[in-house]
Design a protein that fits this description.
Layout (H helix, E strand, L loop, with lengths): L4 E7 L5 E4 L4 E15 L2 E5 L3 E5 L5 E17 L1 H7 L19 E3 L2 H19 L5 H19 L10 H15 L7 H7 L4 H5 L1
Antiparallel strand pairs: 1-6, 2-6, 3-4, 3-5, 3-6, 5-7
Length: 200
C-alpha cells in the first residue's frame, strides 16, 4: 500500500535523544510533558499540542524538561506527499524552508484538542487499515496540514510560478538520483537555469 506515512509510533521513553538526523521527513507531536528541540542551531520549546517538523538531513536533538514526556512521531515520504495530496501547496512544508520558517508550531487552545484527536485517528488508521485506508490517511493528513497552514502560513511556499515549479522538478531529480554524483553545473544545464540562481 502506497502511503504518505512510512512510520508512525507513540513513545513514552524519557531517554535523551542526542544530535542525529533522518533520511526522511519527521513530525513529532508532544502529548504530555515538556521538551526542548534543537534543530539546525535554533532552540524550540515544546509542550502538549506542539508539533515539530524536521526535514530529512536536518540535525536535531531533544532535551526533556518535564516528565512524563509522551509524543507521537511519524516519518513522511516527501515524494509521496507531493504526489498524493490534493492540494500540492500543502506539501511545500516538507520541501522548502522559507525565511522565518518555524520548526515547532504551538496550536491555539481552541484547536489543540482537535489536532491531538486527528493524530489519534491517523495513528489508528495506520495501525488498523480498512477499505480505502490510503484515501482516509490522505484525507486526515490534509486536514492536519490545513490546521498547520491556518496557524503558520509562513511555513508554506504557496506560489507555483515558473521558477518554483522548476526548483520542485530539480528537488525531485535529486531525491531520485541522490546515490549518484550530482553537480550544480550539470543540474543547471539540464534544467536550463543559471548555476548562480540555482545555488541561491
Amino acid at each position: 500500500m502506497n502511503s504518505i506515512i512510512t512510520q508512525f509510533r507513540f513513545s513514552d521513553s524519557d531517554l535523551p535523544q542526542h544530535n542525529h538526523y533522518h533520511l526522511s521527513c519527521e513530525m513529532i507531536l508532544v502529548t504530555e510533558g515538556e521538551a526542548e528541540f534543537l534543530v539546525d542551531g535554533t532552540v524550540y520549546p515544546a509542550e502538549r499540542g506542539s508539533l515539530v517538523f524536521i526535514n530529512s538531513f536536518e540535525q536535531h536533538e531533544v532535551q526533556i524538561l518535564r516528565s512524563p514526556y509522551h509524543r507521537y512521531f511519524l516519518t513522511i515520504d516527501s515524494a509521496e506527499v507531493e504526489r498524493m495530496l490534493s492540494f500540492t501547496a500543502l506539501s511545500s512544508i516538507f520541501k522548502n524552508r522559507p525565511t522565518g520558517f518555524q520548526h515547532c508550531i504551538s496550536f491555539p487552545e481552541d484547536i489543540r484538542e482537535e489536532v491531538l484527536h486527528l493524530f489519534e485517528r491517523i495513528h489508528q488508521e495506520y495501525l488498523h487499515p480498512g477499505p480505502y485506508s490510503t484515501q482516509m490517511l490522505r484525507n486526515l493528513f490534509e486536514q492536519l496540514l490545513i490546521h498547520v497552514y491556518r496557524v503558520c502560513p509562513g511555513n508554506f511556499t504557496l506560489h507555483e510560478n515558473g521558477s518554483a515549479s522548476r526548483i520542485s522538478a530539480i528537488q525531485r531529480y535529486i531525491e531520485e538520483h541522490f546515490t549518484e554524483e550530482i553537480r550544480i553545473a550539470d543540474l543547471a544545464r539540464q534544467f536550463f537555469i543559471s548555476p548562480y540562481y540555482l545555488s541561491h
